[in-house]
Request: fold
Amino acid sequence: QSSCVHLPSRPVGSRCGTVGATPRSVGSPRGKMDAATLTYDTLRFAEFEDFPETSEPVWILGRKYSIFTEKDEILADVASRLWFTYRKNFPAIGGTGPTSDTGWGCMLRCGQMIFAQALLCRHLGRGWRWTQWERQPDSYFSVLHAFMDRKDSYYSIHQIAQMGVGEGKSIGQWYGPNTVAQVLKYVPGPSRPFPG
Reply:
């Protein structure tokens, strides 16, 4: 049961978000969000010792890296991307609809990831890096909250699926890339910009 996570650590909670909640931080509002968001045993990318040995550059979202001299930078860049994936047991879409997007939500999740990355770049800059033991900016948490799998989150699967009805897609029906792009174009966002 996962929705969005951060690479590379092993999360332990239950919704959408980032890794790195510490026991002391769980009582705070942000700590509760962290604790509620850690659900997916990720690829543990940072544990891989067997990066391919190639002289070809590694490109990540327009940034060029060398596998030989910039491994830590590659890991930090990958760990700073949001990852949205299938989830089950979220509140029913439309009150009586699906509670899982397994089998139909892959393109919606891809659209969420692309849009979330754009928001992070817009509000934090392309050079921003998520670090496990540092407090993240308020705008980071605002972006995370906007994608939580709840009907009141701006870019939740609930909002996207319901807006898809206007594009001729039933809730629970698979979307192609154009459909998810068209739907995201019309999903109403926050009336005020994210903080930070």
Summary: Residues 4-186 form one domain. The chain has one domain: 4-186. The first helix runs from residue 29 to 37. The CA atoms of residues 19 and 91 lie 23 Å apart.
